[in-house]
């Protein structure tokens, strides 16, 4: 989503990463489009299991985006010499293409919410309230993601310097990620940390998986692109285990949430967090492998090319789609048959998917300052592959 760089260390664009972004973005849209259905369709035993499954099984979007963020950064920067100029350029790009759109959309969403509230519901000072929400990513429920990403950008130079200085720490990146994430979780149980889901430490296992895979990417690239060549039996076995575990984990994750929402069984809170953590963690590996496999076999197919273009617009789509969904929900039919309600929910997903993509695409094509809203225009280079020259568990609803 952040699209900071979609290039390898040799300057070649890795278009498969845009394909992973597309998968993650579809997951985000599916979760948000079904969030109200998980409340409103609870009394329909025929369809509720389907809505619950879609809403929970697709909860891999944000973690996969966070994984990609650190993956691309360390893949791009780890082999480069450290210099002040490198980091000045790094922060300038994030300010222009990430932080400014965040500020713009935070303002848009805050104003949109404020004008729909009554005088009694509004805070005493809109300015103070807005600044507070801006400072913790809560101007609207989905904006925490950009705030979390900004925290990792602050940590990035230190992490890069440390791993270059002490490369023996690289094999321990993933255990460190889990230790930090669950240590922060345990701390939150004792101190009741406010807006804990807006802290990068809540997602540290995904970040550190990206760090490890980004640094080790040259060793994994050939296996991802050509798994059928060479003595890769162990790799194939590992792939089957990962995919099987991913599917089973997603189904079990959906089941425990179904039991919770229908009142069948309530488990300790950490169980839901643990299931989500493991499932989303494995999802990052599954979609990375799937993207390279699809890119190798069907890279020139129409659907794959469109998915890559969709992934290249993911930041803008992420920022925009809740606004479209909010307007769409105001048009919900008051008395509709069950088939019409199902069509209405499906329409919300299609609006978020196609409507957001069309608006972002048209904006990048025709508006001279579209980057102020939707970040850098990454669409032009989405169909290039490695080796070709390139350009550069939240529980709340959205």
UniProtKB/TrEMBL annotation:
The chain crosses the membrane at residues 20-39, 51-74, 95-115, 143-162, 169-188, 200-220, 232-254, 274-295, 307-328, 343-362. GO terms for molecular function: O-acetyltransferase activity. Signal peptide: none annotated. It is found in: Cell membrane. The keyword Glycosyltransferase does not apply. Belongs to the acyltransferase 3 family. This is Acyltransferase.
